[in-house]
Amino acid sequence: MTVSRRWVMPLVVVLAVYLAATGLLATLVPAPDGARDWTAPLVAGGWMAWTFPTAMFFLTILFILSLMAVWEYASPGGNPRVGLLRFETTRGDRLFVSLLGSAFIHLAWLGLVGPSLWWALALSVVYAVGVFRYV
Predict the structure, then answer these.
(1) What tens digit of pLDDT does each residue of 39-80 get?
(2) What residue segments make up the domains of the chain, in order of their start?
(3) DSSP codes joined into one string, 4-40
(4) CA 4 to CA 80: how far, in whole Å?
(5) What share of the chain is helix, strand, coil (3-state, %, to 5)?
(6) CB of 110 within 8 A of CB of 123?
(7) Which end of the chain has fewer CB atoms within 10 angstroms, the N or the C?
């Protein structure tokens, strides 16, 4: 059985675009006194306070969706499966449930614990792995 390698180039392109966009965003972070202010607006006087973390959040969601597209290209989803929730889900459904659940985990963490979200991120990754494995 031969394994198709048609996914390698799209994966490299998606990763290269993500890294280039991250680098570009990092260069836009203001440094008024020599030290970068990572939470300052990227565009001074803009209509929305696009900070580096906010831009990285949306860029990362775009990256995850692009990775899902490459995965579908390399290995089409095929048949939906019935998991723990007892209804059919596809990979896209499980990605949506993972992203939605992660948003709720982060919001609950902000409300109950505080603004340090590293543990919420770790919990969200564990949650996403569980959703892809068992749902």
Answers:
(1) 888 888 878 878 898 899 899 999 999 999 888 888 887 778
(2) 1-76, 79-135
(3) P-TTHHHHHHHHHHHHHHHHHHHHHS--TTSS--TTS
(4) 22
(5) 60, 5, 35
(6) no
(7) N
